[in-house]
């Protein structure tokens, strides 16, 4: 049973406050979880409770969320059996009493939810991926590695937020990491050679002053080739334009390119890029409230492109169900803090899998050293993870955890790209 719940304020990778929670059980087992934070957030995400006191952390303190953990939440869950994940999560949801977890804060609730799972896993002397996923959990995900950052994650003119490489042709996860790292360093050399900045953005990808997606994609493909790999076969290219960020008054406003594209022009442009480059997946190709655009793109390209809904679903099983019924997207990005509990996260994954939608486990642009999502990717067998570039410890921590998991699974491990 849970004997102690301890919340504290820590810093995330952008130097902003975040919530960390320790859960201690009566047998002495314990679990720790830290909560991530987005920058290009969806409008319907669970509420990240911030203090709003301008004298402390520019208003971004989380002392109220931490107080909720140490007070109301601790009182409600102490004494409960840590194996009762659904009961504990439901208890917190009911205690909060709002639809968006705005009273206690989804950051408070998620920290406790994940720390409970980790404590229960520790009590079972099992790694988290096995405790959550069972004995069959042995599929290592293909990583989508974000090697060029733009949009809300960098100070360059790039309108699209993420340019990623996915080592689909790697035989194992560790080989996928090697390939990604090699391409990342080749890209650095190519950028430097062309007189571009090699400074990195929030997710550890380079953030040069590229004018448009074409320029970024040209460098990415060249870096794959110059590393000795075949674009599309060894490493595929994936995009996250994060289109909600530049959808205004019914059109896509490309500020960096200084031009506006109507919905159909935006779709044509994305498909043209996907035709010219080895692009296999586009996340948030359409804005979260552009449902007609989503349906049109899915009808045109859903059979040959992975179309991943991030902002449009916000990891919410009900929103996903609408998408399945209305036929938009064919995959979902899963971010634990968009919904706020492990139980709801797993339900969303299940809903997706039942409908044949693919699932990409994901970090946030503001992260911590917490590696829970690496374990959840293996636990759910979802086959894909998005956790940033090959630099910055907040990103590589997840890759490193997956390397450990692969090692531990030994010859029973499988890599999603090779199956
Ligand atoms: P965020 O970005 O964490 O800043 O929301 C990640 C994404 O859009 O996928
Ligand atoms: Zn996204």
UniProtKB/TrEMBL annotation:
Substrate binds at residues 153, 162, 283, 310, 362-365, 386. Residues 2-132 form the Enolase N-terminal domain. InterPro entries: Enolase, Enolase-like_C_sf, Enolase-like_N, Enolase_C, Enolase_CS, Enolase_N. It comes from Actinoplanes regularis. Signal peptide: none annotated. This is Enolase. GO terms for cellular component: cell surface; extracellular region; phosphopyruvate hydratase complex. GO terms for molecular function: magnesium ion binding; phosphopyruvate hydratase activity. PROSITE patterns: ENOLASE. The gene is eno. Its cofactor is Mg(2+). The keyword Magnesium applies. Residues 137-419 form the Enolase C-terminal TIM barrel domain. The keyword Magnesium applies.
């Amino acid at each position: 049973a849970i004997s102690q719940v301890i919340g504290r304020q820590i810093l995330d990778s952008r130097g902003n406050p975040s919530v960390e929670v320790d859960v201690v059980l009566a047998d002495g087992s314990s679990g720790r979880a830290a909560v991530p934070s987005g920058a290009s957030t969806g409008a319907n995400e669970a509420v990240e409770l911030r203090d709003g006191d301008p004298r402390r952390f520019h208003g971004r303190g989380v002392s109220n969320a931490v107080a909720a953990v140490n007070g109301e939440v601790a009182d409600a869950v102490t004494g409960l059996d840590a194996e009762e994940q659904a009961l504990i999560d439901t208890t917190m949801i009911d205690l909060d009493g709002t639809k968006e977890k705005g009273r206690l804060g989804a950051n408070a609730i998620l920290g406790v939810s994940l720390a409970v799972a980790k404590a229960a896993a520790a009590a079972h002397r099992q790694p988290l991926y096995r405790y959550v996923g069972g004995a069959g959990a042995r599929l290592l995900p293909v990583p989508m590695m974000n090697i060029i950052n733009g949009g809300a994650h960098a100070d360059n003119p790039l309108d699209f937020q993420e340019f990623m490489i996915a080592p689909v042709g790697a035989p194992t996860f560790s080989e996928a990491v090697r390939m990604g790292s090699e391409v990342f360093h080749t890209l650095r050399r190519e950028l430097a050679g062309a007189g571009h900045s090699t400074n990195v953005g929030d997710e550890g990808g380079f953030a040069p002053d590229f004018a448009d997606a074409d320029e970024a994609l040209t460098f990415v493909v060249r870096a794959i080739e110059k590393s000795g790999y075949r674009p599309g076969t060894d490493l595929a290219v994936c995009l996250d334009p994060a289109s909600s960020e530049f959808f205004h008054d019914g059109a896509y406003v490309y500020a960096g390119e200084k031009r506006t594209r109507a919905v159909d022009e935006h779709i044509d442009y994305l498909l043209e890029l996907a035709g010219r480059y080895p692009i296999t997946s586009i996340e948030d190709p359409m804005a979260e409230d552009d449902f007609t655009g989503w349906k049109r793109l899915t009808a045109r390209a859903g059979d040959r492109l992975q179309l991943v809904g991030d902002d449009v679903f916000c990891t919410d099983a009900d929103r996903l169900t609408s998408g399945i019924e209305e036929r938009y997207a064919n995959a979902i990005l899963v971010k634990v803090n968009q919904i706020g509990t492990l139980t709801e996260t797993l339900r969303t994954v299940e809903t997706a899998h039942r409908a044949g939608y693919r699932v990409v486990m994901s970090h946030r642009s503001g992260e911590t050293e917490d590696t829970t999502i690496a374990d959840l990717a293996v636990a759910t067998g979802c086959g894909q993870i998005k956790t940033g570039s090959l630099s910055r410890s907040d990103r590589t921590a997840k890759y490193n955890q997956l390397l450990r998991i692969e090692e531990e699974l030994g010859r029973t491990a499988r890599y999603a790209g090779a199956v």
